[in-house]
What we know:
Nucleotidyltransferase, domain 5, DNA polymerase, domain 1, alpha/beta, 3 domains, 6-stranded mixed beta sheet
Amino acid sequence: MLPEAPLTPPVLISTQHNLSQMVLDLKTQARVAVDTEANSLHAYHERVCLIQFSTPEKDYLVDPLNLSNISPLEEIFANPNIEKVFHAVDYDVYGLNRDYGFTIVNLFDTMIAARTLGYTLLGLGHLLAEKFDIELNKRFQKADWGQRPLPADLIDYARLDTHYLLALRDNLETELHEKGRWELAHEDFVRASQTSGHNGDLRERWQRISGQQDLTRRQQTILHELCLARERIAEKLDRPLFKVIGDQSLLTLTTESPQKMSELPDLGLSERQIHRLGRAMLDAIQRGQTASLVRATSLERAPEPILLRLQKLKAWRKTTAKTLEIESDVILPRVTMQAIAEQNPRSLEDLAHIMKESPWRFANYGQEILTALGVHSDPTDSAEE
């Protein structure tokens, strides 16, 4: 249980002077809790709208929308002597790098730590309830963080996302050491700090719509034109695609291919949508009926030998993970497993090169991985030159 202490009001940072004062404070800390809030559900051009920091004494809310320059935060994020504590850091890394070019050095992710320990309920609310009997109200998860001024209830909500993180971090670190999994988790902390966050789907937008595979190529071409029209409108309005018109509505427009505005009400479009989008949708349908046929982007299938090695590695990690009661990708992350399958190591030395970013996994599982691949090397052989 956490010691009971009244929450003091968070410190709102919306001037350059206050930002400088906060940075001076953060520079004295061994670790700080961090979170971000974005407006992805409310804007086409998504951006980070709030950055929360917590120390043992204070909760800070940095308002980047009202600050002309937040580059002073770079010396906090890049400082290897200050640990940055996040929960589910993936999207934070992505947003901070995309919007401000920040990279994060030395992080601790409480979700990664919980996964490494075998927890099944990984949400921050679940963990705080289990560890400290603290209930978080998550009803503002879909709030518009781009609105200004921020309502008081959003401010309270935002500060609680970091206020208890440092205590949770210490609790989980103790468990990691007790179970001998600190090094395993630390490898994933480092990997999380280096990811670009979201690799994206290489397929065109129309290919990502469920049901498009049942269309003719001409219909797929119409759907493609409808997607392009929606994209232009969403960008102009600065609204997310789904708030302009949903995927299934585009699919209906494709299969019915109306030619007149009077046909649109019967296809489920609201009066507002018809007024705002109707003519653009009809024009897109007409373009799709005569445009060159689209061709689906096919994801290249890996050669059979690689697929066979992947199958062997998946079977091995599943069995190993079961003994530790953790998810299989904690044992061997997908990107590492893919690299091993593609490069087909024939010795511990080969494998050590592939797993150079995962020294603990190599030391503990290297020989098992080779055995799973059918490589019979001498386990006493050194992987070092």
